Amino acid sequence: MTIIGSRIDGRLIHGQVANLWTTKLNVSRIMVIDDEVAQNDIEKSGLKLATPAGVKLSILPIEKAAANILAGKYDSQRLFIVARKPDRFLRLVEAGVPLETLNVGNMSQTPETRSITRSINVVDADVEAFQKLHEKGVKLTAQMVPNDPISDFMSLLK
To answer: pLDDT category, 66, cuts 50, 70, 90?
Structure first.
C-alpha cells in the first residue's frame, strides 16, 4: 500500500498541504476524495492550480477512489489523501481501504460547529465519524504543520 499520509483539511489543497506536507512526505500524488468536488469543474480547476509542479492530482468520488486504491493503481506512487470531513475517510475505510493514521488538520468554524482546537471545529456527525474511525483502528492525530507536535485527536474530542 502506498498511502503515505491522509489529512482532513477543509481547504483541501492550499499552502500547508501543497508546500509543507507534500515536501515533508515526498508525495508523488495528491488524491482529493469528495463526491461533490469531483462533480464541480470550477473547484477542480482551482485544486489543479494549487497542486505543486511535479505532483500528480486525482479528484475522485469516494467509491472510485476506493476501487482505484484497492486495484493497486497507485502502488508505485507516494499517495497523500485529502478530504474536507471525516465521513469521507470513514466511507473509504468501510470500502476496504486500510488506513493506519488520519491527521486532522483544519476544519473551519461555522455557526453549527463547536471548537475542539483553534483550527478544528466539529458538528455531532463529525464526532460520530471520528468515533467510528477510531473503533475501526484508525489512529487519529492532530497536527497542523509537519513541525508541530503530534497530538492524540481522540483525547481532544473528550
So the answer is: very high
Q: Is 14 a catalytic residue?
A: yes
At 132-143, the pLDDT tens digits run 999 999 999 999
pTM comes to 0.96
Catalytic residue among 11, 14, 44, 134: 14
**Residue 121 vs residues 26, 41, 49, 89: alpha-carbon distances, Å:** 28, 27, 27, 17
Going from the C-alpha of 106 to that of each of 6, 34, 95, the distances in angstroms are 13, 16, 24
Ramachandran region of residue 72, left (φ > 0), alpha (ψ -120 to 50) or beta?
left
